[in-house]
Amino acid sequence: MGRFSVFQKVSKAPTNPHPSRPPVTFDVAELYEGPVSYSTEADLDGQTILDEKLRQAYFWILNTAIISPHYDIEYNQEAPVEFTIGDNHSRLTLPSAQSYSSFVLLPLLTFATRKKCLFIGGPGRGKTASAILMGILAGYPLKEVRRAMQHGHPQMTIADLLGNPLPSDLVKADTFDKIRIAWRKWLGMRVKIIDEYNRIPTRTQSALLTVMGDNYAEILNQIYECPESAWFLTANDDQGGGTYQVIEALRDRIDVIVQALAFSPRFLSDLLIRIEGNIHPEEVVPSQVIFTESQIDQMEEEIRSVEVPSDVRRRIEFFSSQFEFSDVSAEQFEYKSKDTARLSGIEWSSLVSLDNGRDRLKDLGCQTKNGLSVRMLMTLLVYAKALAYFRGNRIVDLEDVRQVLPFVLHDKLVPDLDAPFFDAASNGTYRIDRVGWLRKLFDEACAEYVRLNLDREDLVAELQSQFHMGLNGLKERDVRSRLVKIERLITEWSKGNKLYGHLYDDLVQLKYLHQRYTNYIRWLKAQ
Amino acid sequence: MITKAFAAVLKANREEFNQRYLYARKRFPNIDKKTFLEFLENSVVPIVESVDNFQSERVSDVVSAAYDIGLELVGQHLIDYSGKSEGINRLWQNLFPSVAHLVVQNPRKIFTAFSNAFYHLLHTAEARPVFWINEMLRLSSKCSDVDTFLEVGQIVAWRSGLAHLREGALTLAANLPQGLAIAAVGGPVTADWQKLLSQIRADPWFDPSEPEKGPVFGVVARVGGFRGFGGPFVSPPQVSSDGKNFWVRSSDEYWQLTADCFGTTVHHADAKEFDNAAKRNVLPTAIQISGTTVQYKDHIAKLENIGDISSAACNGRTLALTFSQTHMIVLLPLRS
């Protein structure tokens, strides 16, 4: 007899139905589909649709396991209904399409893409419970997941984290490679959970960094290669609290940060049912939503193959070009970046005081202290693909990027809270609300992109695509004409006396193209 | 009255069954405890008794499956002992106790599938759910496994009025053992199966139970009706056909119409299908329409008191007509 089988109901497929024409032919099998669901493993035949399974897992977690009525990832098919409530004009929107709870969705996308997710939020909000569920979705028994979970504490040693050399070998061995290591079991798991990672001592954090960053563990010259895995870390405080300061490199390895929102008291009856029925959701995860190793592999492959169309990619490029540029950080064009200033050790306020001429309110780059790294951009693309895949699409939509962006850049794009933007009365909340600020930042970048009409008139993109067609067989006359085009464009741009981040990146790109063509002419002449 | 075997299973798994009920209450806040207890007593007990006599070691699994599915049915108000409406309980009381040899093989599968099938039959106008139960009782002894019984259930559902399942049902029938296939389509025991199958496929108005019945030109079915009286249409409909399927427009709604000698069904469609069919909607020259009279070859049908014919469509085997003063679509077979 299947235990708790009613508790294990999984949402019926399709969980995110796409508009489709009514069928012209009828399937006789539909006779046996209806209000009663047949929920046993036999439902799952060889042709499991993995994005559907992922959605079923999402809805099971949302409806049954983690009570999170916060639909903060909003999608709309038509304009949403909006309300303004209270003295502070709080805006409540009712989305017109299937929307999601980030606290459940982001960990699932992390599970599917085998990335690293940090849960933040006060105690008792389901951070650890969510992480455990991810372990169970990967097919591990609950006991194994619990035992493999690493609990950060101030006395945690590298041996606690990674394993111990066998005592007998320590005595007998005359070289390091003869010492066998009893590696900790969690290192071999496909879902790794570190609870309260900000309580781990700094030295042990460095050992953890190697496992997280390079996927191997090392003790006494012995190496343990870990399998590809999804990581789930929890912290009560994201801003450097906890027993130990989290080393920056470790924070940088985290791909998304998701906040556990407050419990809604209206759902107290659900808690009551759990108490009365002695039900623990993690003990009754339905078999239909548990993934095999090969399914996770396949899912990751399918996510990677989701297409990012060029118009969406251009918006990401435009957005990311806003932040790294710092006109006063260097004399040479290529070094005009915030990173140059950071490496020099100059006080941020001193750097800001050097900056004049730009509209510091209009320039989005003035709102941050840093730019976007390659790792951040790659993570953003992966999660945007994963979200599109989760929604049953095979092409990323701009909204997918907009929705995942705040969770990817949450801890990465550092706001300059002294920037004029944050001084505006209506923007005060963004000093606290990181997700809202990042989303607004992206919206403003997109608005600027539209204002500049870059969807239709992107001269650099045209020159770039011309270059990507290849240099083979190109005549000197044609190359010279392209060089003239580049120089004319730069001349035109230099007439305006303001230099903004996106313009800077375009100029760097034009210089690159100019250099490649110049080299090609030199090569042609040498023939 | 709860039997000893049933009581033993409930007692042994009391805590778990209570938890299942608690969770069902979360899913279906209006679940009626009294109806659920009635379901257990009136609908599950006879099945358990029957299973206990046939294979007592399967009682536990049968009770477990019946309990879960019962919660879903009662939670969705699909069980009715008041007699006000037909509920799925009729299926549980009349069919399952008599097919214990199949129930024990996979109780969850058969309970779920047949409950859903019965639901469709109950909610399709003109379908005959009681006929379906009776036919399944008749055919159950010829089926040795659940999957075969399920396939027979699909064929019989077609014969019970779900005309849209015709193609799929005939494909299933073609793959069944000959004797069972003839019985499932309701043909005479002595029939030549291949001949019978080709006759059914060729003519939607050929009734396998009366293979000798000759062609008659006249009204065989009236489909639809005004929505205010329980029909699907808000205004008198129009029909069109692409030569194979019938499409219907009523006000700004569109439907697909399926029909054969066992029944008629309508299903939501979109404007595109109707419009595409309307462009190709041509009546054969053998059909002549004048006012309220239709002539097909030498046969004449007079259709009076429902206004003039407002549209006509033909798919080769059936003529569909609509009228200015009715929300019904009238069907006439075209048999040579």
| Mass-distribution shape of chain B | globular
Q: How many individual helices of chain B?
A: 13
Separation of termini of chain A? 82 Å
The span between the termini of chain B is 59 Å
Strand content of chain A: 5-15%
Number of strands of chain A: 11
Sketch the major β-sheet of chain A. Answer: 5 strands, parallel
Averaged pLDDT of chain B: 91
Strand content of chain B: 15-25%
The tally of helices of chain A reads: 20
The pair of chains with the biggest contact is:
A-B, 33 and 54 residues
The beta-strand count of chain B equals: 11
Question: Judging from the principal axes of the Cα atoms, what is the shape of chain A?
Answer: globular
Radius of gyration of chain A: 27 Å
The secondary-structure class of chain B comes to: alpha+beta
Report on the architecture of this protein.
- The complex is a heterodimer of chains A (527) and B (336).
- By secondary structure, chain A is of the alpha/beta class.
- Helix content of chain A is 44%, strand content 9%.
- Chain A has helices at residues 50-65, 102-113, 127-137, 142-148, 158-162, 167-172, 202-214, 248-253, 268-277, 293-304, 310-320, 338-344, 348-354, 374-390, 398-409, 420-423, 434-451, 459-468, 476-495, 501-526; strands spanning 81-85, 90-94, 116-120, 150-151, 163-165, 181-183, 191-195, 216-219, 222-225, 230-235, 256-259.
- Chain A has a 5-stranded parallel β-sheet. Chain A has a two-stranded antiparallel sheet with strand order 1-2. Chain A has a two-stranded antiparallel ribbon with strand order 5-6.
- The longest helix of chain A is centred in the last third of the chain and has 26 residues, at 501-526.
- Chain B has 336 residues and is an alpha+beta fold.
- Chain B contains 13 helices and 11 strands.
- Chain B has helices at 4-12, 14-27, 33-55, 59-75, 89-94, 100-103, 107-122, 129-140, 146-159, 166-174, 178-185, 193-202, 271-279, and strands at 221-224, 238-241, 246-250, 253-260, 263-268, 287-290, 293-296, 299-302, 309-314, 318-323, 328-333.
- Chains A and B meet through helix 9 of A and helix 2, helix 4, helix 7, helix 9 and helix 10 of B.
